[in-house]
Every structure is written in C-alpha cells, then in structure tokens.
Design brief:
The complex is a heterodimer of chains A (130) and B (439).
Chain A lengths: L1 H34 L31 H22 L1 H8 L4 H23 L6
Helix pairs in contact in A: 2-4
Chain B lengths: L1 H44 L4 H38 L15 H11 L10 H26 L14 H8 L3 H11 L3 H32 L4 H7 L24 H28 L24 H25 L11 H16 L8 H8 L2 H27 L5 H29 L1
The chains are: A mainly alpha (130), B mainly alpha (439).
C-alpha cells in the first residue's frame, strides 16, 4: 500500500510540475515569441547596474559570509527531521508506554543538547553578521 | 472620514467582483470537465466511454490550478495596490474597468507582449530555467491545498496525501533555488547580492517556520490537511490558534491546574501563530523582510535583469506563494473551512440544501434541476467560503504589514531569526508538549 502511495505521489508531482507549470510558461513564451517585439543592440543588452557602465562580469569570487549560518541550518534541519516522527507518535507513545512524561522528557533532553550547541555558536560569535 | 468609508466600499465591491470571477471560472470549468462532459460521454457511448470520462475527471485539478493561479494573482495584486492606496490616502488604480478592476489583467497582457531583453554575458540556460524553477513549486504547492479548500471533494483530490503538511514544507523550500539561479545567471552584481541575501534569509527563517508547524502537527497528531481541519470543527475554541480544543474541555468542576494549563496552552498557540506569520512573511519575501529585492539599495534584487514574461512569472510565483502560506495558516491555525461559531456552518449547509431541494427536487440527468444540484454542492460551498475568507484576510493583513513597517537591515534580519525566533520556537515546542499532557 505504501509503495502505491509513493508511486502516486511521484506521479502527482510530475504531472503537477509538467502540465500546468511548464505548459503555462511554455505557452507564454511562445506567445511572446510570435507577437512580441524584438530588437537587439549592444547598449540595450548591457546589464543594468544603476546606469553605470558595468566594470566587468558579475561572475566573480564572492565572499559568502553566512556559511556558518548554513552549517547551523543543516544541523537544525536534520533535528526537525527527527522531531517530526516523534511529534506524530506522541499520543501513541503515551497510550502504549502508559507514562505521561517519558516521551516529552526525552525530547526535552534531545532539544537541550541542540540548545547547548546553539548557545555555543552564539557565544563563539557565529551568529554575528559582519 | 466619509471618503475613507467610500473607498472601503469600493474595495469590497472589487473583492466581490473578483471572487465571483475567480470561483465562477474555476468551478464552472471544473464542473463542465469533471461532471457534465463525463455524463454526456457516458450517456452517449456507455461503457466504452468510461476511460475518457475518467481521464477528463483526472484532469480537473490540473485545469483548476492552471486557471486559479493567474486569476488569483490578478486579484491579489489589485487588492494590494488598492489597499496600499487606502492606507496612504490615495486613489490607487481606478481607470481600467469598473473602479480599476481589470488593471492587473491589462498589466499582465502588457507583460505578456513586452520585449524580452537578455543581458549580455548571461548564462542562457540558467537564466531561462530560473523563473520555471521559481514558479513550478507554487503550482504543485497549490494542488494539495485544493483538497483542503474544497473539503476533500473527490474531483479536487488528485491523490490521497496523508503527509500533506510535510509535502508543502518540502515544496516551499524549492523557490530559493530559482532565486539564486536567476541572480547568478543574469550577470549583474546587484542581482547576485540580492540572490545571496535571499538564500541567507531563506535558510534562517525556515527553522522557526518548521518548528512552529511541527508544534501544530503535534497538537493535531497528524500531517493530513483534511484531518487537521476537521479536528478544528465546531467553534472558535477548537481552532489550533486557541490550543486546539483545550478550552472546550474545561467545565465548572475542572481542577485549577487544568484551567491554568489550558489558558497557557492557548497563549502559547497565539504566540505560535505570530511566529508563523513573521516567518511566512520572511519566506515569501514580503516587506519587512524583502531584502532580496530591496529597491532602495539593489535596484530590484534578483529580478533586475528580467523583463517581459519572465518577470511576470516571477511576480506570479511570488503572489501565489503568499496565497499558499496564507491558506496554509488558515488550515493549520484558523480552522480551515469551518465556521467560527457553532451551528453557523450546519445552518448554512442545511439551508442551502433545503433551498435546492425545494426548488428542484430529485431530477433525472440533464434536466435543469440535475444541472444545478450537481453544480452547487452545499458542503463544498460552505467550506470554500470560510477558508477563502480566512486566507484573503491574511493576505490583506500582509498588505497592512507592508504599509506599516520599514525594511530591516540584513544583520538585524539574521539576528532576529537566530537569536530571537529560534529560541522562542524551541521553548514553545517544549511548552506545548508538556501543557498538552497536562490538559
């Protein structure tokens, strides 16, 4: 049954992506091609940088300052993946384990470790945008 | 003062007109493809036509989305311009059509026929693909919402998605790829800066957004839109924004700690909703967080070099994303397609049903009564009405925010997410878990 659902979902995504999205965009681009106005010139095709003549290409080395945020993001994103099944089975756990507090306390410990990590990053200055 | 009331009246008229256009068109086309044509085919050719009838019915959600997205965007842009005009005491667009109702349609046609300029040195493949990648997720994101909006109407439920919430969250993180591609490929330094800022912003605000949504799923115990909406049936007190029914269980004889926990849970959920609204604004690049296209510093950010239809597609996707997060909030927090007061919804449905039965009664296919009865489904009408009221109210609220708040600076933006919202979201998650066990 689950395999069927996965197949259905994949089909659903593909049809959803292929039919309306790409068809609409393709249609719009075809209309533009046939009815639109086309003329090219050197100045017109310059990239627009506030009216200044562009000095060089924009494909330059760029200092991405937020890679530390990106690292933290990955950690928290994976944490979310772990929390999600726990959140959905909370009621079931309570009913089978017959313990009201066991599973919330476990999650508190898990999140506590994450918070310690966040606090460490904060203290080390990883959350400062220079 | 009088003129303000007058303008609000005009705005209400425009809204009604556009709602009739959007839902009339979408429902009319869906009905003729999904009900009328299959019935005609089946009555003409019998069993051999069954395949074609089913194929037509399977196409309904696709056609409905393809019609709904552009029409809805036309209305949302118009509403935003009229509302901003109202907040700043101007007139707003008021020439094309009655009270300017068709201004955005004219704009869309103009953009469709405008010349496309590709900047010199642009990476052509990525430059062309970027709007597609930005736009496609908003289309596939609307599809499962259709099922929730129409109350699991069989025509609009293309696939049984028991993990709809997870699906929307996954899909809604794709557009930033399109933004980065577009910014990088257009060979413009401003676009590049805008795109990189957009990536930083998207990854920062995704964490609190995910955490707040997970907390709601924890309250509801499911990831299915329709179930989450149905759990909130009944009244205002059952909505997740007030603790998902914690308040309804209270009686005179409840112990004090149960009452306190229920009240605290309601307070936590209201905070959670505020958190969601803030993060959703940042995710769809709305104004206090519209750093990626900050026009006072970056010309127009990642879409500076886009013109004509490609720019229109960016625009379309942006507003559709706003609609998606609003509808998502309406389903998750504000009770989905259920009325805020007990009895109201049932009264509406049974009233409409009685009216239809009195006028037409039972009819054989292709008589007037059959046509009307299959066109107007009272339960669906009520669901659609309530959910649309809620999600458009949130869209208007986003316009209000845009008219009110100034733009943040990039370091303030990152600080606000990582040092305020993420800890708050974690605290709320733990608090809601414990309070839920106490209630």
């Amino acid at each position: 049954m689950y395999e069927l659902q996965i197949a259905e979902t994949v089909l659903f995504v593909l049809v959803g992506l292929a039919l309306p999205g790409v068809a609409m965009i393709g249609l719009a681009m075809v209309i533009e091609k046939f009815f639109g106005h086309h003329s090219q010139s050197l100045i017109k095709n310059q990239s627009y940088e506030c009216g200044m003549t562009p000095e060089h290409d924009a494909y330059l080395q760029f200092d991405i300052r937020y890679y530390l945020y990106a690292l933290l993001f990955i950690v928290f994103d994976i944490e979310v993946v772990f929390i999600l099944p726990w959140a959905l089975t909370l009621n079931w756990m309570r009913d089978t384990l017959k313990s009201l507090w066991l599973s919330p306390i476990e999650m508190t410990i898990f999140l506590g470790i994450m918070v310690v990590g966040l606090a460490y990053a904060w203290k080390k200055g990883a959350l400062e945008w220079e | 003062m009088n003129s303000a009331v007058f303008e609000i009246g005009k705005f209400a008229r425009l809204t009604l007109l556009w709602l009739c256009i959007i839902f009339g068109a979408v429902w009319g086309v869906s009905w003729s493809i999904g009900v009328l044509l299959p019935a005609v085919i089946l009555s003409q050719s019998g069993e051999s036509g069954r395949f074609w009838a089913q194929l037509l019915q399977a196409l309904v959600p696709v056609v409905a989305v393809a019609l709904f997205v552009p029409l809805n965007t036309c209305y949302m842009v118009l509403a935003e311009r009229r509302l901003l005009a109202l907040f700043t005491v101007r007139k707003g667009p008021n020439r094309v059509g009655p009270d300017g109702a068709f201004q955005t349609v004219a704009d869309a046609l103009k953009l469709l026929l405008k010349e496309e300029i590709t900047p010199r040195g642009a990476d052509l493949l990525m430059y062309t693909l970027a709007p597609v990648i930005f736009f496609a997720p908003s289309i596939i994101g609307v599809m499962p919402l259709l099922a929730a909006v129409s109350g699991n109407h069989p025509l609009f439920t293309p696939v049984n998605l028991p993990t709809g919430v997870f699906y929307i969250l996954a899909v809604s993180s794709i557009p930033v790829v399109g933004v980065v591609m577009g910014g990088w490929a257009s060979n413009n330094k401003y676009s590049l800066v805008g795109a990189l800022r957009s990536a930083a912003q998207a990854i920062s605000y995704e964490i609190p957004l995910l955490l707040s949504i997970i907390t709601v799923c924890l309250l509801a115990g499911t990831l299915d839109f329709v179930q989450i909406a149905d759990n909130q049936r009944g009244s205002l007190l059952n909505w997740n924004i007030l603790g998902g029914g914690a308040l309804t269980h209270l009686g005179i004889g409840s112990p004090w700690w149960s009452i306190a926990a229920a009240l605290l849970l309601a307070a936590c959920c209201i905070l959670l909703f505020a958190l969601y609204v803030i993060c959703a604004c940042a995710e769809v690049n709305r104004t206090p967080f519209d750093l990626p296209e900050a026009e006072s510093e970056l010309v127009s950010g990642f879409n500076t070099e886009y013109s004509g239809i490609k720019f229109a597609i960016f625009f379309l996707a942006e507003y559709t994303n706003l609609f998606i997060v609003s509808t998502f909030a309406a389903v998750m927090f504000l009770g989905g397609g259920h009325a805020p007061f007990p009895g109201l919804e049932d009264a509406c449905i049974s009233g409409l049903r009685g009216l239809l039965a009195a006028w037409f009664g039972a009819c054989t296919p292709f008589q007037l009564g059959w046509l009307v009865n299959s066109l107007v489904n009272p339960a669906t009408v009520s669901q659609v009405f309530w959910i649309i009221v809620k999600s458009y109210a949130l869209v208007w609220f986003a316009s209000l925010i845009r008219a009110t708040l100034p733009r943040l600076r990039i370091d303030q933006l990152m600080d606000y997410s990582w040092k305020r919202l993420v800890p708050l979201a974690l605290i709320l998650l733990i608090a809601v878990t414990f309070l839920k066990e106490l209630v």
